[in-house]
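Re: beginner question about structure tokens

> Can someone show what the tokenized structure looks like for a real chain? I only ever see the sequence side.

Sure, here's an example I had lying around. Input first:
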Amino acid sequence: MKPPASSAEATDRLPVEPALVTAAAALEPGAAEARHGELVERVREANRRYYEEDNPELSDAEYDALFRELVALETAFPALATPDSPTRLVGAAPGGQFAEVRHRRPMLSLANAFGEDELRAFDARVRRGLGLPPAPEAAPELRYGAELKIDGLAVSLRYERGRFAQGATRGDGTTGEDVTANLRTISVIPDRLSGAPALEVRGEVYMPKAEFRRINEEREEAGLPLYANPRNSGAGSLRQLDPAVTAGRRLSFWAYQLLEDRPGGEGPRSQSEALGRLERLGFPVNPERAADLDIDGVIAFLERWREDRHGLPYETDGVVVKVDRFEQQERLGMVARAPRWAIAYKFPPEQVETVVEEIVPYVGRTGTLTPVAHLAPAKVAGSTVARATLHNLDEVRRKDVRIGDHVILQKAGDVIPEVVRPLVEKRTGDERLFEMPERCPVCGTPVVRDEGAVRIYCPNPACPARVGQEFGHFAGRGGMDIEGAGWVVIRQLLERGLLRTRGDFWRLTVEQLESLDRFARKSAENLHAAIQRARRRPLARILNALGIPQVGEQTAIDLATWAAAAWPPRDDEPMGGPQGWTARVAGELRRTATAAPARFQEVPGVGAVVAEAIARYFADPVSGEVLPELVAAGVEAERPPRRPAAALAGPGEGAGTAAAAPLAGKTLVVTGTLAGFSRQEAEEAIRAAGGHAAGSVSRKTDYLVAGENAGSKLARAQELGVAVLDEEAFRRLLARGEAAR
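And the corresponding structure tokens:
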């Protein structure tokens, strides 16, 4: 083994803190070799779990510490740096379940910086590499761009003749996995380009925080293991063998690199110009970026986002800093697995210490008992946290969290409060183990543990906790959306016996509502009017309001679309009443559940487990009567739009009627306040008419529906030349597919 390397010998290696190199160099050669072998195995296993299984066991901070120690050892003892070392490789090899794709150019990783000193050291290395003076003011031609680092899955998109031809994961940097079909389900990725016959775009697929929260809520209610953070769940969603599963996860994408060969060298000359061209081509490019910065400007940018990132709808774990001019990037070149012209600044993990004051089991609307830690209030990631779910008893035991423990608290994905670990060294012996109760803490019914699962639940459908949660879900947003029917009101109605079934909402009188605490005549009349308005809702909203296990908002939309195609309303058929379409659909769902439950797998995105849950719900003698009981109370579904024959996926007769959906193939964005629609209602109307309701304006947007206080989306639409509709034009478009421009 060679003696420790000098600083000159180490210049072609990944940057690392001098203090770590000094510590590594102090080891005896035998000890250094043994430690190197241990680190290599741990980093390789961490890479395998992160890239291949999307299920890491180390936090980012723990992984970074191991990797930096490994780099320091190889810098101090160059003979240890074999070609197959993790410091020389990117990601992990493709897993084998997808076809392999060889990247035209390697998809490299980035070196990391963890403080201002390391960023300034990066700036100094760049200046030396370009032969520039050390003082920024003496070399104004060196400028940086700063972009938020999205914590997702890196992919490459290849376009041929203006059409999206192939998409691949990064893999090991040289070879990735072909996930073209799954990438096509991400609505913000353009399928066609104009004026760009052949190019490659690289970027990050990610899961928005709201979608991460939604999926974990559904998994927790179902007793399934939770995803650790948006990155893991987004990566796992993209690497599904069934594209329908990916489609149901609402992934998104930011583009950050353009590879394009244009005649005469007419292409972009800098990263900032390349991002502008990507925007003009219709790709989503993160607007939270800055260009024309010196190193002080870079540091100011990251200091701003250290706190402001918590308000973003997606997860970012740092800032990527790049030399802006491509000519300077080419001169700087690469080192090991990373470019010399870029570095990733990693935000320090926000963790705080607090105390578990109590662990309390809460009963959800499906009866699941969830242990929740009651904490001494602590501020983390921008908000004060006093509660954190511990998910299930198995998780409590795995982490060995006890009542009275000092614990480390963080927010998983900057979203969900999470107890990371107990501080065992601070235990006094007074801490207590948590035990799940043998009986429901609300109704006293013996609890049940699913065989082979982690779910412990109260089986009593009349349990007050279950009933209260079910009624709250039923009346809430995404369900019947009864304005004013919050938890305080529902609890009073249940306690007074005014609500026994969900149909009882429409049997309430103004006088009964006026008797509630803090209610006057006017507030009672307002709530009564809101309840009456909620008699008519889209079928998807009604199905979602039922609280069918395993069925969330998107699955309810898919199920309603399938049902409308299978059993379309007749022209002379009323929507409500015992002989109406809503009653007919309720009966057909019951018959399908009992006679042919496997048919529910025909619903897009529904597999065997979800199909079984739907069938069990509608076949059950209690829950199966909820929808017919609503019909009897006067609830009716809105008439679904006619759809073109090719669009109908349902199996029933009559699936093939009439005219095309008025918004088929159109993308609309809703912004501002509309008089006759909530935002959710407008988006549901778009989907019901065959269109796609997007969240942001891009060149792919066909229409922006703008109400009062439209804000930045209106400005963006005007900038891109997107047609803007007021509410009246939107209604005409829904009715006839026509809009005044």
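Each token stands for a local structural state, so reading them left to right follows the chain. The chain has six domains: 9-88, 112-346, 354-457, 464-534, 537-647, 667-736.
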